[in-house]
Amino acid sequence: MPNFREDIKDRTILVTGGTGSFGSAVVKKLLNYSPREVIVLSRDEKKQYDMRNEYNSDKLRFVLGNTRDKEAVNDVMYGVDYVFHAAALKQVPGCEFFPMEAINTNTIASNNVMNAAIKNNVKNVVILSTDKAVYPINVMGMSKALMERIMIAKSRENRGNTTFCGTRYGNVMYTRGSVIPFFIELMKIKKPLKLTDKDMTRFMMSLEDSIDLVLYTLFNGKNGEIYVKKSPAATMGDLVTVLTEIFCYNKKNIQEIGKRPGEKMHEHLISREELPRTYDCGDYYKIVPESPGMDYKYYFKEEKAGNLPGEGYTSNNTRRLSLKEINALLLSLPEIKKELSYFKKGKFYK
Q1: What is the residue-wise DSSP string for 178-234?
Q2: Strand, coil or helix: 141
Q3: CA gap 104, 90 in Å, rounded
Q4: What is the pTM of this model?
Q5: Which residues are catalytic?
Q6: Less crowded by CB within 10 Å, the N or C end of the chain?
């Protein structure tokens, strides 16, 4: 990855949802690049308190507020150069049961962020989307898909000087509420591991990968483009098998419960309809926005990302990780290393 120090030095960056798993990780990375200021906007004062004590940086400013509040968003945007919009409701079941909450946060509040960025002449905004926004069958994906379309619409309007781009990624390993820490917590209390479907596949991506993706997008993206990191995938059956091996847990304690409401068997990062507008950028794919009069014959002829299958880019047709590779990937995570140290000291089980 390139060094973004000169691009970030003496700049002011706003991270919405900055106390979440991604937000706190990207804030830590940004502070290493000598920014003028990093502003964290979030609703959780306890997490802000913990971050303030952990980072102890005079370049870090915390603002209590909700992206649903237009005035609060507009106030915090003054003087900002770059925005990472990470504030969202991300749990599929929760969004299914409370759909208006997902719409208000993931869609309407995102529109607030983008309008405030235009009004305050922010240079670049990167919105964080999800694989679930492609062929969405759940509220979380639908609300994020609408966020993407709003971003593209804003990029076409050319109101002001703000460049809008987006990123999509699949499961980020060991983020709050994700499956790996969930399985580990079940093992700690010696409960059956609740596996939805052993053949279900998911993209596997580290937090560091997600940060590299948004930084790459911030400084390489043009208006309306969406970027995707090339990521391997694993079946949920293989993932839980490796976890039980790492922590010496009885495999008979794996309980298959079936898909949860709104879940897919396999995830898409790029749809078949987007393939003609997709470019191969090495470690990433770039999806350019659809526009009236676009010559699709040209795009098909050029085969911009001709290595992708006709169904699009999915967790079922990307590179599948072997058990050995999953093991190595999990053992590389600092959180797994920490839990493993507790396990070896006999302090793992509660």
Answers
A1: SHHHHHHHHHHTT--EEES-TT-EEE-B-HHHHHHHHHHHHHH--TT-EEEE---EE
A2: helix
A3: 13
A4: 0.91
A5: 132
A6: C
